[in-house]
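Quick one, probably user error.
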């Protein structure tokens, strides 16, 4: 604090106690008595009088220091201390759910605290404080505004921005959705002795509303193939609603669906759209507006979809040509979007690999050969003479982890899959296997699949368009009479189906289990009876299931793919604030994976902000030409991305769609508990909008802040000690000179 900006006062202060005062008084009295007696005996000789006066002075100095004297200089600011009023200006403050005490029409949250934005509201304390009003959050009408409110940043920086801050008033609905939790900023306020006075606006009960909260379709599809458009409707209506949902594609196709929406919850449904040509499309899900809705603006949501030609490469590796292998190969051979190769490790074959038109005679043993495959099916094979090697397993693991391919484990009664647990593929297995019974379990009575809650919602297990029809299909499928020795699913795995009857100490036996691994996906199919699904319906369910498996597992490899570059991102349709993992595969002009290089991703947001992310090749991953990094979107919409490599000069352009709507939602519940916690931890108070008139009085009742003080402790100062020692030395020398020793 500079002298010109403050008032400086100084003075001497003591930290005396009754004990120190008593001891000092007794000491001085005794010394004075001894001095008077000694002077009288000497006949009041001048030399003795001087020595005794020095004795009394020493006693007085000791008594003075015994009461801890300090020289204190205090500085008080000439200017009035500031009180900062933070008013939430985000879109959610337009929610009309604040009812006045007189029972009139509800006001918006913004209007209920609008008086705080007027410095005249604090007229009664204007002589004492400097009122400074600031806004937090993005205004509802701001162009390109951020999608919500960050309460942490302004609270964390307010002490630094306003020297001498006395208090903070925060008027908000507590609905923050950006930045760190606001409570993390309380430490800064408490350390500075600044209380926060909270004014929570809004009701904790949401207003009636229907909203399209999500459209979770894939970002790429295949021309001529049904494209599933799943959507979620969020309802805060007090009763069940029947709505007519319209799904529009930019190619002119329109679909209508009647959906019964559950009250105060989420309802999921989907439609199928078959694009007729390759291109970039927009799919829009629309709800009809209702007069009682709080925010009709959230009744529509769109996503971009890229439709491409499909050509997937699949490798099937098996030992015996069992029925499951034969029907799987037939299903894939009849799929126009799939090109498959097969490899049989059967010792009795006349020709290596199987000898058929689609057979290969050896396992792809190099990076270049194996990376051509989008999905690999591993049947009843393991690490054995004439089967896979440890090096093959390592290549398969890296194919999934770094190249975003998929792998399907399809065990059999020979139990070869158990040998994979000790290889590089062990971490990919999504289940724990029982080594004591490698042959699995055969049953005379057919078992059946029972979908889990995850399985009912998964695209992978969708054999009918609606959940009800899909559940009925799975219940009607022919059963199986053998299943693998599965003990339980591993942590991080997702169980889509379990045995309808058999179980163990961990619950029902998992039969259909998935898990992500690196950039790719893993599926474990614990039975070999899917070929029986053709009974009575031919290819209807069997072909659909395996077609969905192949496309589901190969999906990420088709995202934004160029001739020598591929850019993958997860999740596929992130939300603002969600970390997006970026993985790029880059090869050089010779077709070899790039070992080292400068690979960047430039992202341009819908608002025009440009951000560059440097991708790196950690560890030995460069052997696959893999470069990884992270990016966090800050606003919703379609973001233009450009992948570039300085060494090869290649560029790949694409888009990443971020879900969400600009600004916060209107009609959502307020979160007063957030503001109440801030006030409690900062030793402030809470004032409701209907009692705003009490706020100036609470601020007026704050104690005056302690002035900035600089203290010099005289009782512990080296000069005071030197003076006392010097006086004692002179006193001792004088008595020696007078012959008193």
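Nope, works fine. Designed sequence:
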């Amino acid at each position: 604090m500079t002298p010109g900006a403050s008032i400086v006062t100084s003075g001497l202060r003591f930290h005396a106690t009754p004990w120190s005062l008593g001891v000092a008084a007794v000491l001085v009295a005794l010394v004075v008595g001894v001095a008077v007696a000694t002077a009288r005996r000497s006949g009041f000789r001048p030399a003795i009088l001087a020595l005794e006066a020095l004795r009394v002075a020493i006693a007085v100095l000791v008594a003075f220091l015994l009461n801890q004297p300090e020289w204190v200089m205090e500085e008080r600011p000439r200017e009035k201390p500031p009180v900062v009023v933070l008013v939430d200006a985000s879109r959610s403050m337009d929610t009309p759910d604040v009812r006045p005490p007189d029972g009139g029409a509800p006001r918006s949250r913004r209007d209920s605290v609008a008086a705080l934005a007027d410095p005249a509201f604090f007229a009664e304390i204007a002589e004492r404080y400097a009122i400074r009003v600031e806004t937090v959050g993005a205004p509802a009408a701001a162009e390109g505004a951020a999608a919500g409110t960050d309460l942490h940043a302004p609270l964390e920086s307010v002490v630094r921005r306003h020297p001498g801050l006395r208090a903070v008033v925060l008027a908000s609905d507590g609905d923050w959705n950006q930045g760190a939790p606001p409570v993390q900023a309380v430490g800064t306020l408490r350390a500075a002795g600044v209380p926060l006075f909270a004014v929570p606006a809004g009701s904790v009960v949401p207003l009636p509303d229907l909203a399209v909260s999500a459209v979770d379709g894939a970002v790429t599809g295949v021309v001529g193939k049904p494209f599933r458009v799943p959507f979620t409707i969020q309802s805060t209506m007090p009763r069940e609603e029947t709505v007519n949902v319209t799904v529009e594609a930019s190619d002119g196709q329109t679909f209508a669906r009647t959906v019964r929406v559950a009250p105060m919850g989420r309802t999921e449904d989907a439609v199928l759209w078959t694009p007729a040509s390759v291109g970039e499309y927009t799919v829009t899900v629309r709800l009809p507006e209702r007069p009682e809705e709080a925010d009709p603006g959230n009744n529509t949501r769109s996503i971009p979809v890229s439709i491409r030609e499909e050509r997937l490469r699949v490798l099937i590796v098996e030992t015996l040509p069992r029925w499951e292998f034969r029907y799987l190969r037939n299903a894939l051979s009849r799929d126009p979007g799939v090109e498959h190769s097969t490899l049989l490790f059967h010792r009795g074959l006349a020709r290596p690999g199987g000898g058929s038109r689609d057979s290969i005679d050896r396992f792809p043993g190099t990076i270049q050969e194996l990376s051509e495959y989008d999905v690999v099916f591993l049947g009843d094979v393991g690490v054995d003479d004439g089967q896979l090697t440890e090096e093959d397993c390592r290549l398969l693991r890296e194919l999934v982890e770094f190249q975003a391919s998929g792998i399907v484990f399809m065990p059999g009664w020979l139990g070869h899959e158990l040998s994979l647990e000790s290889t590089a593929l062990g971490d990919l297995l999504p289940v724990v296997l029982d080594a004591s019974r490698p042959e699995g379990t055969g049953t005379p009575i057919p078992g059946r699949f029972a979908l889990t809650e995850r399985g009912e919602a998964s695209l992978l297990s969708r054999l009918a368009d609606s959940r009800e029809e899909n559940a009925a299909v799975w219940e009607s499928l022919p059963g199986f009479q053998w299943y693998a020795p599965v003990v339980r699913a591993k942590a991080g795995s997702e169980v889509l189906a379990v045995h309808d009857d058999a179980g163990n100490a961990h619950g029902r036996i998992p039969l259909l289990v998935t898990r992500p691994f690196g950039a790719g996906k893993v599926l474990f199919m614990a039975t070999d009876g899917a070929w029986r699904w053709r009974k009575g319906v031919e290819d209807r369910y069997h072909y659909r299931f395996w077609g969905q498996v192949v496309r589901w597992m190969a999906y990420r490899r088709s995202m934004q793919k160029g001739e020598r570059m591929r850019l993958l991102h997860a999740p596929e349709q992130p939300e603002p604030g969600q970390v997006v993992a970026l993985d790029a595969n880059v090869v050089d002009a010779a077709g070899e994976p790039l070992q080292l290089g400068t690979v960047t991703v430039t992202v341009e947001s819908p608002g025009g902000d440009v951000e560059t992310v440097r991708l790196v090749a950690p560890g030995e991953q460069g052997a696959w030409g893999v470069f990884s990094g992270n990016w966090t979107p800050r606003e919703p919409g379609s973001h233009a991305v450009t992948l570039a490599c300085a060494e090869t000069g290649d560029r790949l352009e694409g888009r990443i769609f971020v879900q969400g709507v600009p600004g916060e939602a209107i009609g959502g519940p307020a979160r007063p508990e957030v503001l109440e916690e801030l006030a409690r931890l900062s030793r402030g108070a809470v004032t409701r909008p209907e009692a705003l008139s009490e706020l100036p009085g609470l601020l007026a009742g704050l104690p005056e802040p302690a002035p900035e003080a600089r203290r010099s402790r005289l009782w512990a100062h080296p000069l005071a000690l030197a003076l006392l020692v010097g006086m004692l030395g002179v006193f001792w020398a004088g008595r020696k000179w007078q012959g008193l020793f």
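Residues 565-658 form a domain with the Immunoglobulin-like fold (CATH 2.60.40.1930).
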